[in-house]
Amino acid sequence: DIQMTQSPSSLSASVGDRVTITCRASQSISRYLNWYQQKPGKAPKLLIYAASNLQSGVTTRFTGSGSGTDFTLTISSLQPEDFATYYCQQSYSSPSYTFGQGTKLEIK
Amino acid sequence: QVQLVQSGAEVKKPGASVKVSCKASGYTFSSYGISWVRQAPGQGLEWMGWISAYNGNTNYAQKVQGRVTMTTDTSTSTAYMELRSLRSDDTAVYYCARVDSGSDRDAFDIWGQGTMVTVSS
Asked: What spatial distance separates the first Cα and last Cα of chain A, rounded to whole Å?
């Protein structure tokens, strides 16, 4: 099974900061990597698919990059609504999927 | 609009079964897969399995294999997830999600609102 490891597990930042979250796969997954945002009490929301493609309707503050085993999600100029938990997900082994453990982004 | 609407919260005793429904609207149901994902209180997302709404093919996570059955009813555009032999560690919010496996992506683009399943004696 492909394991996904995110870092850091939690992160404190201020409005206006630029933050980067990293996701590493246990084997090469090409660009089969998605990112989701989840707010408390809500369902996850797709932000980025295929490593770097912005889902329709998602703000351009979010960018994704990477391929192979190492991926990043960058949020430029944090806004109050961006404080949430972020998950990466591999779809290389579709229709079997794996999520990372999550990164909680909190207000400093 | 495209949406998935799930059934309501359930409370079950250990050893019982639960069946959660997920009704799709606003798109051609058979053109997409459905995955089920659960989230225990305060924990991360755990993928449970996938079903093709086109032909009913399934793929289950090893952790729940043997206890879970996913089905679809194309006449009502509804997906179902049944989990048997419930244990306390099955207490979680259960989500269904539409799986868009197009030419350029394979991602969960639409999610249901979640169904809380509580297992307690």
From this structure: 36
Residue in A43, A87, A97 nearest the CB of B44: A87
How many CB atoms neighbour CB B112 within 10 A?
Answer: 25
Tell me: the pLDDT tens digits for B52-111? 999 999 999 999 999 999 999 999 999 999 999 999 999 999 999 999 998 789 999 999
Q: Other CB atoms closer than 10 Å to residue B41's CB: what's the count? A: 9
C-beta neighbour count of B20 within 10 angstroms: 24
Say how far apart CA B52 and CA B26 lie, in whole Å. Answer: 18
Residues B70 and B81: their CA atoms lie apart, in Å, by: 5
- Report CA-CA distances (Å) from A47 to A31, A52, A82, B73: 15, 10, 12, 29
Give the residue-averaged pLDDT of A17-37.
98
What is residue B30's three-state secondary structure?
helix
Strand pairing of B115-119 and B10-12? parallel
Amino acid at B55: N
How far apart are the C-alpha atoms of B38 and B65, rounded to whole Å?
14
Instruction: Give contacts of A 17-36 with B, CB under 8 A.
Output: 32, 34, 36
> Which candidate, A34, A31, A25, A37, places its Cα nearest to that of A1?
A25
DSSP A66: E
Distance CA A24, CA A47 (A): 18
Three-class SS state of B88:
helix
Mutate to test the interface with A, among B45, B95, B104 (most CBs of A within 10 A): B45
